[in-house]
UniProtKB/TrEMBL annotation:
The keyword Signal applies. InterPro entries: CHP02448 (IPR012661). Residues 1-19 form the signal peptide. Keywords: Signal. This is DUF2388 domain-containing protein. It comes from the Bacteria. Pfam families: DUF2388. The keyword Signal applies. Residues 25-45 are annotated as: Disordered. Residues 25-42 have a biased composition (Low complexity).
Length: 99
């Protein structure tokens, strides 16, 4: 009884490793191609879009909850935009939520 189970496990394990390796390779190449064609803005947008959940927590808590993704996005926005340097954290968090 244990022999068929062991055989199935040994047979499916390499297939799952190959599938995840293939997915990572194809996703990586697609990401590289898109970032090369569109400049660095796609990576920049990702930083801001990843902060949406933290921004929602920040706005919902009245500025009490500050997540790491939100902090990174605020820093990123202020480095790139002069108007963002003058805006409050709450205003920028609301802008992130509006995206």
């Amino acid at each position: 009884m244990i022999r068929p189970i062991l055989f199935c496990a040994l047979f499916t394990l390499p297939m799952s490793v190959f599938a995840s390796s293939f997915a990572g390779t194809s996703a990586g190449s697609a990401t590289g191609a898109s970032s090369n064609s569109s400049g660095s803005s796609s990576g920049d947008d990702k930083v801001v879009l990843d902060a949406r959940e933290d921004a929602a927590g920040f706005v919902g808590s009245g500025g009490v909850i500050r997540g790491a993704y939100l902090e990174a996005a605020l820093l990123h926005l202020r480095e790139r935009d002069a108007a963002a340097r003058e805006a409050s954290d709450m205003a920028l968090a609301r802008k992130i939520l509006a995206l």
